Each structure stands twice: as structure tokens, then as C-alpha cells.
Amino acid sequence: MYSSSNLHEQTKNDFVKTVGLPDLAISNGANFIRHRSLSDTFSLFSNGPELLEYFPSTFTYNYSQNYKNIPSRIELE
Amino acid sequence: MKINHYLIGFAVSSLFRRGTKSLFVLFIFTALIFLLSSILFISNSIKEELNLTLDSLPQIIVQKLQAGRQTNIELKRVNKLLEFQGVQSAVPRIWGYYYFEKAGVNFSLVGIDAYDKQYKNSFANIVKNVNFDALEKTSSMVVGQGVKKALSENYYKNYFNFIKPDGDFIKVPIASTFSSKTSLESNDIILMPRSLVLEIFGMDKTKATDIVLSVANPEEIPTIAKKIKNLYPDTRVITKSDLKVSYQNIFDYKSGMFLALFVISAFTFFMIIYDKASGLSSEEKKEIGILKALGWKIDDILQEKFYEAFIISFVAFISAIILSLFFVYTLEAPILKEIFIGYSRLKPSFDLPFILDVQTIFLLFFLTIPLYLAAIIIPSWRVASMDADEVMR
């Protein structure tokens, strides 16, 4: 059950329709965390193969679960 | 069961009699529930904000993968995709990230085509006083509030010099900013004509970043996605339902600070409970003994203890919920929101939608209050069922 007000729903939807990209602009420290639902486990490797995710927001803001298309034997949790 | 007002009165006065102790329990209890509920409120609001615009997202996104990385997709494929039964339109998109070194932030550059008349109306709603066609004619851009701020801090008030891959500059004037109502979505986004984005990224004109499809019948989306995957095995096909699933999981309580906060607070709480459950103080035992000697029955004593525990936990619960609602929605969650934002330099103004999530409140209620009640009543019952003179001795 939700009660909500003041959401500016129409404006936001118009914006997303025009731009067509998912996710909120809350983390933009690195490009692989900006559109988390489009990025996958390997997205961060395009910045460098030895990288580990180290941005604080990546602790809470998970990458996309669409990894079923990625050929890999890496265990994901 | 009839409510005995005298028992309630007795419970309240006995709480006041042990003033410091009651106050301490009240404070810890309030702090714990406040912390937990604030975090849950923030993440619920963000999830709601994401779901709010889910319907406006493209139905299918087709990306090309090469060597495990996303690369640009050939424009030739657009016609092939249009041949599928049920596909209404296939639009190649140009977008990407531009790293602005001086501020240390990534902007998201999105190309828009002036010939796509479908955007015309929605564009007019999000950008005031700039015409959709004028943007193309003057080769200018529309930027988010955060971009505008980052640029003006670096002396780019009216324009910005993008650096092309070959080292040349492109001067792009800022035509306008997005409406601040959309700042949670638009904060780091730059919208400009497609040809400009191609030039800034130095992209091949026969390629696009990805292709978005719209499908007339939503039921057909999984079938079409499968067909695309069969035709082009090197693609990643993301449907809207995939995005929905990923939104469900996006605030995974993966580890780190989130869990740490929870563990610390839960640990404190269980310490209190352990302390309570491991036995009443001799003073409390004596009090129960006296009450029994005065002729109170066991269930009178238990009722009085129940009132006592319920008053303290319920007051703590209600004040914690009110405090955290105030903290999250009025003060906009200082400190705690940093967990979700990270230390990215381009922080959007945090205008969270007000969601009163009754489910979360009930969850917290049943997670904390019954535990506390049990921790008070069970030891009292153990004492109350003993003989009065044995307890008092």
C-alpha cells in the first residue's frame, strides 16, 4: 500500500521517454555504475582488467541481473 | 479481556520510578528502529522512483558484445530487425559517457534525432523555451542541473568545449537545462543532436551504440527477443521485464556499510534483550514478591509487566518512525543518503517521493516489539510463579 504525492510523474516519464535510458543519476563516479541495469558483471573490466569495484555505491547498487546472456562460468553469488 | 486502568496507572508509575533505566531502554530502542527504518525508507523511495518511469523505457534494447564488452552495433542490422513480425519500430541510438576531468565526473551524452517527431511533445514538456528544431539548427545542447553546476564552477557558463578523440575542440553552446523536477533522472545527462555526439565520440557513421525496438503486442516481446538472439548470437537483448527484474534486485543488501549498520544495531538490541532475559534484578524480584504477598494473582502481575513493556516499546517505535519520516523526507536524509550516492561528485538534489510503506512499518513492528515483550514477560512469569516468601527472601 502506497500513498504518494508530488511526484511530477508526467514530467519524469516524458524525460525518460525522450532519453530512453534507465536508472537514476545517483552514482556517476564511474561509467559502469551510472546505468547499472544495463551494465553487467564485466562492465567494469572495460576500464581495466585488474579493477575491483570499489565505489561505495556499488555496495548497495547492484549490477544488472541480465547476465544470462553472457557466456561465463563465473559464479555470481 | 477487560483493560484494567489501575494496572496501567501502576505500570506508568513504576516506569517513572525506574526513570533512568526506562529512559535508556527507550533511547536505544528508538535509535535502533530509527536507523533501520530510515534506510528502508530511502531504499523504498528510490525503488519507487525507478518503478515510476519504468513504463516509459524502451521495450527491447539490443546491444552488441565483442570480446565480452559492449561495442557499437552496425546500422545494417536495423533493417534486419524491422523484418521481424510484430516489430513496430527499430531506432538506432547514439549515447555514451564523457569524462569531464576537471570535475572528475562522467556525463551521459545522449544523441537525439530531429526527424524523430515522436519526441517532439515530450521534449516540449521537459525543456522550456527551447524549440526541438532549434537545438538541431544551432548545434546546441540541453544539460541537467548537475552538469550545469559542474560546468559553471569551471568557468563554462554558456558553452562547453568538448575534446574530440583527435584532440580538436568542439564548442557547444548550452541552450537550456532540464526541468529540476526530473533532477534525479536528468542530473548528469546532456542531450544534443545526434551528429554532434557522433563527432565528439569520433564514432563510425555506419554504427550506433544500441538499437531500441518497440513491439506492438507486449506478449510477443520474449519471442522476438529470442529470435533476435538466434539471428545475432553476439547480441545482448534486454527487455523491459529484464529491467524490471534488475530494479527489483538493484538495492541488493550486498554487503558493506548497509549490512554493517544493520549488524551493529541488531547487536545492540540483542544485548539489551539478553540482559533483560538473563534474569530480573533482585529489586524487581522483591517487588513481584511483595505484590504477590498483597494478593495479586500471577496474571495480574504479568498484565502489569506487559503494559509496562508495551508502553515503552510502543512509544519508542512510534517516535522512531516519526523521527525517521522527518529525517528522510524533510531533512532529505543527510549522511545516510551518501550510502546510496557514493562519493560521486555530481550529486543530485535528493527530492525523494514520499512513500509511506506500511509493509516495512509492520515488518519492523513485528521484528522488534514482540521480541522485547517476550524478553520482559518470560522472566517475570518465572519469578511470579514462585512462592512469595521465597522470592522476597
Q: What is the helix/strand order of chain A?
A: HH
The count of strands of chain B amounts to: 13
Round the Cα radius of gyration of chain B to an integer and report it.
Answer: 31 Å
User: Helical residue percent of chain A?
Assistant: 10-25%
The helix/strand class of chain B is alpha+beta
Biggest protein-protein interface? A-B, 55 and 85 residues
Q: How many domain units of chain B?
A: 2
Strand content of chain B: 15-25%
Output mean pLDDT of chain B.
86
Query: How many helix segments of chain A?
Result: 2
Computed over alpha carbons, the radius of gyration of chain A is 16 Å
Mean pLDDT of chain A: 73
Largest sheet: number of strands, sense, barrel closure of chain A: none
**Biggest β-sheet: strands ordered side by side in the sheet of chain B:** 5-6-10-7-9-8
Q: DSSP strand (E) fraction of chain A?
A: under 5%
Low-confidence stretches of chain A: 1-5
The tally of strands of chain A reads: 0
Main sheet characteristics of chain B: 6 strands, mixed
Please give the alpha-carbon distance between the first and last residues of chain A: 31 Å
Helix content of chain B: 40-55%
Class from secondary-structure proportions of chain A: mainly alpha
